[in-house]
Amino acid sequence: MFESAAILIHLTDAHPAARLAPVAGSTAHAGFLQWMLFLSSSVYEAALRIYYPERYSTAGQAAGPQIKAQALADYSRHLEIIHAALSPYVLGESLSAADPYLHMLAGWYPGDVTALYAGLPKLAQHAELLRRRPATRKAEQDHTDR
Hints:
- By secondary structure, the chain is mainly α.
- It is built from seven helices and no strands.
């Protein structure tokens, strides 16, 4: 199986006792799916255009700067949309599988993260909440040890 959103959704369905997604079929679950697909199809896609702009034009490298500029604008706009919904997690008061996904994608921000967080303080709070979790701290430590 591939595609991070599909993997996360599958894991929440396969392990409902972990309570990382609302009960399937509920209105809350529909909101969970909405955010998972938004993160996958909008935020992730914009990040790919930032880092691989030549893939998005037959002109290759020549179109890269314009594609990257548009991707940065789109990525920022997408983060603003999800920022407005954070309370403090993607689905409100409870952590879901959407939260580490957002944390990963927001971590791909190519610029000064301090400036990003200054403009999106709820995203900064979200990142801090995730960083406090033991599994996140371990994963970040493993990443820096490489």
